[in-house]
Specification:
There is one protein chain. By secondary structure, the protein is of the alpha/beta class. It has two domains: 170 residues, Quinone Oxidoreductase, Chain A, domain 1 (Alpha-Beta Complex), CATH 3.90.180.10; 122 residues, NAD(P)-binding Rossmann-like Domain (Rossmann fold, 3-Layer(aba) Sandwich), CATH 3.40.50.720. Strands 3, 5, 6, 9, 10, 17 and 18 form a seven-stranded mixed beta sheet that branches. Strands 13-12-11-14-15-16 form a six-stranded parallel beta sheet. It has a three-stranded antiparallel beta sheet with strand order 2-1-4, with no helix packed on it. Strand 11, helix 5 and strand 12 form a beta-alpha-beta unit.
Length: 323
């Protein structure tokens, strides 16, 4: 079967790969759509330390069960939870598998969804029985990141929010915060096209966060310049939530954390409950992913779409699996 693969260096290729054979406890999923994100861009630039050349990329996967498994009938719509935890480390034993010491992901450590079929552990499937567009379900994984960030923040009704970083995750965080009862929600983003997209969804935007103040501040940019200002944006007693993943440890004003009694909260991907909540938000219509899904391409168009995504064209690209 043909698949979108990282061939090494900065080369992306459509390659013929073997069809997966599910192992014990695994399910075979017919891929409907797979979303491409910043992680895929890092992989395809040779910047991800765990990815190996020849990898089938894509971890934002929605599809249907190919064969009956674990009580699910063939054809059941599913969202794939791509996290692969060891189940044995201290974090896993404490029920925090998203912080597993040996956490792996579908589409990074094992073949991903930018193809026709993918084999995953059956307990990683979130079944959907209500009628829903598989394109929309492909956004459940990134939405789960936003769901977890807002839940980790401890946001209370009426509290003001600043989100720094206007990529898909940052915009999703702003929408989730608004849906959770935040007061004023402001998104700071220097790129005009990203601000325009957020504004089209009714989000107040500014070019930078200097001078803003809020009880809850989300860093969805993971840029050293943002780390330098987040403690100024949070009001005394406020909370800073680090959503983006920094490549190198940034400088953070810990004196400001102490003097203003700030809480700094980390959030890593999502729990099983978070991605289940994200799926339900989409299925119920309480979160509409359609505006994010700016382009859907066939597999042979995926390398070009990936290159355009790297140039900042569009918001979310979906690669179609089964034709």
């Amino acid at each position: 079967m043909m698949a979108l693969t990282w061939a090494g260096g900065s080369e992306v290729a459509i390659a013929d790969v073997p069809e997966p054979t599910p192992g014990p406890g695994q399910a075979l999923v017919e891929v409907g759509y797979t979303g491409l994100c910043g992680t895929d861009l890092h992989i395809c630039a040779g910047e991800h330390p765990r990815a190996k050349p020849g990898l089938v990329i894509g971890h934002e996967i929605a599809g249907t069960v190919a064969e009956p498994v674990a009580g699910l009938a063939a054809g059941t719509a599913v969202v794939v939870d791509p996290l692969i935890a060891c189940g044995a480390c201290r974090a896993c034993r404490a029920g925090r598998s998203q912080t597993c010491e040996r956490l792996r992901l579908v589409g990074i450590d094992v073949p991903g969804g930018a193809t026709r079929l993918v084999a995953v552990d059956a307990d990683r499937l979130i079944p959907v029985t209500s009628p829903v567009d598989l394109r929309h379900l492909a956004f459940a994984e990134p939405l789960a990141v936003a769901v977890r960030a807002v839940r980790r923040s401890g946001l209370q009704l009426g509290q003001d929010v600043v989100v720094i970083g206007g990529g898909p995750i940052g915009v999703a965080v702003a929408l989730c915060a608004r849906n959770a009862g935040a007061g004023q929600v402001v998104l700071a983003e220097p790129v005009p096209t990203r601000r325009e997209f957020a504004a089209s969804l009714g989000i107040q935007t500014v070019a930078d966060a200097v001078g803003l103040r809020a009880e809850v501040v989300f860093d969805a940019a993971a840029h050293p310049a943002v780390a330098a200002v987040v403690t100024d944006v949070a009001v005394p007693g406020g909370t800073v939530v680090v959503v983006g993943v920094y490549g190198n440890p940034p400088a953070l004003d810990l004196q400001a954390v102490t003097f203003a009694e700030l809480s700094v909260v980390g959030t890593r991907v999502y729990s099983r409950q978070d991605i289940a909540v994200a799926t339900e938000l989409i299925v119920s219509g309480r979160f509409d992913p359609e505006p994010f899904l700016t382009r859907t391409v066939a597999l042979d168009q995926a390398p070009g779409a990936l290159a355009e995504l790297r140039r900042g064209v569009g918001v979310k690209v979906l690669v179609q699996g089964m034709s």
